């Protein structure tokens, strides 16, 4: 069971590329608060980081540079996101990727991401060693039986919703 006293936040980011250490940036963030056994409020924003999206990244998430024109800047989004997460434990599918991008964005703004994190990717490898792979949609399909046709893959809020539901299901069975 999920610790009912702990507030979890499932998070996902879409980025300009694969490495925050090579200057790639977050261009979309989605998060879902989990309280008790329920999904609660959500946070979502596109972000105009001022960096161009690589072709490879655009093929994955479908976000174009043009779509980011007029989006809020990082110094508007991340302080609001920090208020949203408060002292929550973060949950992500491949938490290492998402959390490192978030840490780098926070550092650029002069503050630190202090949240602990849990990884549904690592946990799924331990709980379901027989799966053919551990992609977010593979684990989701395994746990829920069908793909949700309303979910747009590789978009931050929808991926965060999937990770949140996976986390809750995993904690039911733990």
Number of domains: 1
CATH class: Alpha Beta
Q: Report the average pLDDT across residues.
A: 93
Please state the overall shape, judged from the principal axes of the Cα atoms: globular
Subunit organisation of the chains: single chain
Give the helix level as a range of percent: 25-40%
Task: Give the name of the CATH superfamily.
Answer: Ribonuclease H-like superfamily/Ribonuclease H
Structural class: alpha/beta
Order of strands, main sheet, comes to 3-2-1-4-5
Largest sheet: 5 strands, mixed
Radius of gyration: 16 Å
- Our count of helices gives 6
The count of DSSP E runs of length 2 or more, i.e. the number of strands, is 5
What can you see in these coordinates?
By secondary structure, the chain is of the alpha/beta class. The protein has one domain: 2-Layer Sandwich (Nucleotidyltransferase, domain 5). It is built from 6 helices and 5 strands. It is globular.
Give the tags.
174 residues; alpha/beta; Nucleotidyltransferase, domain 5; 5-stranded mixed sheet; 6 helices; 39% helix
Helix and strand layout, with pairings?
Blueprint: E1 7-15, E2 26-35, E3 38-46, H1 55-61, H2 74-85, E4 89-92, H3 95-108, E5 117-119, H4 120-127, H5 136-144, H6 156-173
Parallel strand pairs: 1-4, 4-5
Antiparallel strand pairs: 1-2, 2-3
Question: In a nutshell, what does this entry contain?
Answer:
This protein has 6 helices and 5 strands. It is of the alpha/beta class and 174 residues long. The protein has a single domain, classed as Ribonuclease H-like superfamily/Ribonuclease H (Nucleotidyltransferase, domain 5), CATH 3.30.420.10.
């Amino acid at each position: 069971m999920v610790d009912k006293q702990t507030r979890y936040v499932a998070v996902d980011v879409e980025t300009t590329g694969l490495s925050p250490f090579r200057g790639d940036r977050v261009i979309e963030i989605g998060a879902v608060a989990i309280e008790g056994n329920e999904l609660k409020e959500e946070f979502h924003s596109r972000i105009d980081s001022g960096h161009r999206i690589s072709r490879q990244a655009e093929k994955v998430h479908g976000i174009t540079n043009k779509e980011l024109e007029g989006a809020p800047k990082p110094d508007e989004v991340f302080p609001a996101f920090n208020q949203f997460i408060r002292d929550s434990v973060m949950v992500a599918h491949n938490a290492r990727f998402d959390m490192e991008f978030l840490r780098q964005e926070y550092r650029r703004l002069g503050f630190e991401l202090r949240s602990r994190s849990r990884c549904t990717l690592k946990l799924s490898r331990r709980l379901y060693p027989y799966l053919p792979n551990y992609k977010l949609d593979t684990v989701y399909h395994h746990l829920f039986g069908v793909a949700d046709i309303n979910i747009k893959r590789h978009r931050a809020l929808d991926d965060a919703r999937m990770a949140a539901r996976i986390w809750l299901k995993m904690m039911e069975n733990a």
